[in-house]
Amino acid sequence: TIGRIFRRAFFKHRTLSHSIVGGLLIYKFFEFVLPRVLNAEFVDSNLVLWSIMIGYGSHLLADSLTKEGLPLFFPFDINIGFPPIEALRITTGKWIENFVVFPAVGIYIFWFVVKFQRELTDILKLIV
User: Fold this and answer.
1) Which residue in 38, 67, 71, 91 has a CA-CA distance of 20 to 30 Å to 100?
2) Residue 38 contacts by C-beta under 8 Å, 6 or more apart in sequence?
3) pLDDT tens for residues 26-50?
4) pTM for the full predicted model
5) CA distances (Å), 79 to each of 7, 27, 64, 84, in order?
């Protein structure tokens, strides 16, 4: 039924928002909204848009490394993952994610903050 499709598309993780159509909808939404809510004298809305899309894309890339993969062709029940052999992908919530992925991300964030401390401080001064 329509209700079941609606619930599946909007209330379940890795459905519409993780598909090609969802990516286009998110892009178009922010492309429309950002220039209307950001002050163009101080903020380049196109830069903000692409920053959001890079973050969104990197999230999808990370999700493609899991056994669940991505429903790129939602509503069709076809999930795409990398590597193509599911046995080589990460199981969400298991030891490799907790003891390899999370620490690696934490180390990267620490390195990034230390390396770009001055630039990040300058950006924070503009905001506060």
Assistant:
1) 71
2) 45, 48
3) 999 999 999 999 988 888 999 999 9
4) 0.74
5) 19, 22, 9, 10
